[in-house]
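Input structure tokens:
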């Protein structure tokens, strides 16, 4: 049995080395899994020690035996809590629902740890092997069942809104936990709880936390962005160049040189595909180049900026504003002959601590009937949408996917209608270390 614990520890130690050496996003979900990995490794060490001490009661001092058993049970309770916490965060990211069960889970954790420290430990001696039993062990099983029910309840009540891959991971983990706990309860001498915990952790890692899978997702999104940039509305390029050509024919104005310079600036800034994150100043500079060209082409079009100077260095996903502004022009102001205004603002969010909000507002024709609902569904179910290579919504879908991937599922793009006409795109992004 001790050999099995050593083997399990070596397997998870290898997983931990791979996991911590890979580039990871610092989101609550990944931070929880990082803590879980460390606690599981500690638990396997205490598991191996107790497998030895419980079967050598006559030679190991009772004080040592009890101490290692309390550490073993304490880490098991903590692991059960972390499994619940991981599931709760994942469900929150998938559905947007707040984690209302967290206070109860934390209160019970404090009670369980206190019970682990104070309740008496009893050891059963049998011909097949020794094990701990009595109220201390019953309390441990109750704690595992409590967190199992919390996690399973969250999974079942939100089943339809969770991505299939993630449902499979949680379902496999829950099934493994149920089977192992049942077998352990049937025959206490098996001492296989460490195997169950290892299998659950591996299920989460292989399906949800595998660095290769995360890199594949990043590659997919980067290819989508590359395609998007390669398709920066060819009509815009052709029409702008035609405008410049006509202007050059009419006179040798220096304005032609200025237009050419802004066009060069736009394409120089837009090809930085090797940088997933840029400063807000860089993103605004690209947008200014684009809008100067558009305003010259359409003299009745106006653009205003209201950017908090303190946010100039804030990191934002590369190339997210131009597709949003272009969408406002094509679907809001085009029908009005490009007569109107686009306003771009960037401020610290008053409603979301530690966040900033970039708003792109237009005075256009607003949403067509049923269009707002369709856009909201697409943005809400972005994970189920395949990357689009054609169609009018390619820009905003790819923007949503990249924000969620690079910044976390708590952030992203949403739309509202303006009272005076037109629409506003709201981009919520993290400030500080959360943005990566």
């Amino acid at each position: 049995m001790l050999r099995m614990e050593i083997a399990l520890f070596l397997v998870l130690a290898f997983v931990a080395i791979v996991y911590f050496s890979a580039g990871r996003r610092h989101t609550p979900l990944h931070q929880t899994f990082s803590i879980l990995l460390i606690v599981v490794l500690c638990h396997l060490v205490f598991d191996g020690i107790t497998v030895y001490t419980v079967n050598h009661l006559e030679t190991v001092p009772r004080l040592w035996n009890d101490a290692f058993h309390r550490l073993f049970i304490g880490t098991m309770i903590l692991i059960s809590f972390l499994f619940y916490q991981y599931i709760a965060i994942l469900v929150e990211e998938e559905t947007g629902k707040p984690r209302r069960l967290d206070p109860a889970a934390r209160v019970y954790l404090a009670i369980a740890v206190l019970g682990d420290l104070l309740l008496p430990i009893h050891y059963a001696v049998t011909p097949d092997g020794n094990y701990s039993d009595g109220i201390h062990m019953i309390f441990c099983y109750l704690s595992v069942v409590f967190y199992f029910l919390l996690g399973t309840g969250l999974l079942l009540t939100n089943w339809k809104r969770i991505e299939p891959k993630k449902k499979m991971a949680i379902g496999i983990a829950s099934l493994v936990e149920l089977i192992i706990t049942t077998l352990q309860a049937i025959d206490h001498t098996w001492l296989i709880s460490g195997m169950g915990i290892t299998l659950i952790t591996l299920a989460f890692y292989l399906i949800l936390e595998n660095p290769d899978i995360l890199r594949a997702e990043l590659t997919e999104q980067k290819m989508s962005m590359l395609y998007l940039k390669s398709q920066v509305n060819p009509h815009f390029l052709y029409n702008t160049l035609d405008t410049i050509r006509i202007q050059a024919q009419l006179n040798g104005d220096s304005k032609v040189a200025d237009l050419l310079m802004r066009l060069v600036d736009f394409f120089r800034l837009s090809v930085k595909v090797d940088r997933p994150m840029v400063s807000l100043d860089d993103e605004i500079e690209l947008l200014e180049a684009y809008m100067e060209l558009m305003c010259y082409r359409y003299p009745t079009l106006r653009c205003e900026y209201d950017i908090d100077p303190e946010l100039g260095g804030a990191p934002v996903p590369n190339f997210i504003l131009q597709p949003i502004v272009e969408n406002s022009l094509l679907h809001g102001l085009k029908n009005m002959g490009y007569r109107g205004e686009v306003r771009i603002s960037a401020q610290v969010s008053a409603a979301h601590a530690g966040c900033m909000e970039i708003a792109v507002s237009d005075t256009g024709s607003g949403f067509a009937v049923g269009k707002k609902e369709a856009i909201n569904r697409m943005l809400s179910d972005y994970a189920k949408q395949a990357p689009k290579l054609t169609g009018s919504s390619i820009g905003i879908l790819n923007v949503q996917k990249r924000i969620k991937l690079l910044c976390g599922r708590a952030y992203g793009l949403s739309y509202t209608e303006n009272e005076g006409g037109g629409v506003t795109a709201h981009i919520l992004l993290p400030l500080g270390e959360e943005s990566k």
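The chain is about 60% helix and 10% strand. The chain has two domains: 2-209, 215-434.
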